[in-house]
Amino acid sequence: MVQKTILILILIITAFGVKAHLDPEYARKKIGANKALKIATSQIQRMVKEQRIGSSWLKATHLKSGKKKFGAEVEWVVTFKNKSVEDLKKKKLYVFIDVFGDFVAANYTGR
Fold this sequence. Notes:
single chain; 4-stranded antiparallel sheet; 111 residues; 34% helix
């Protein structure tokens, strides 16, 4: 009798576990362009706070946002332009966000 009860409990727990894996509410949701821009802007604020980039980047202009494929991965590339920067190679900042909203990287090359 005890073995049957334990077996039934195991089956019930397993059934709920399978439902959790099949339920789309548990899946990560992909973000859109507006959310990518918000995340990229917050990453610029973080990088300024950590003194990785100059504070003039807080006033940078958003140029565009788009998805780009890197090998098998697709990422959002959010591009900003800083008119205060004199070095032409560092006038644009590219912020890379994965399709789920996680920060990947930022650079001046876009690659």
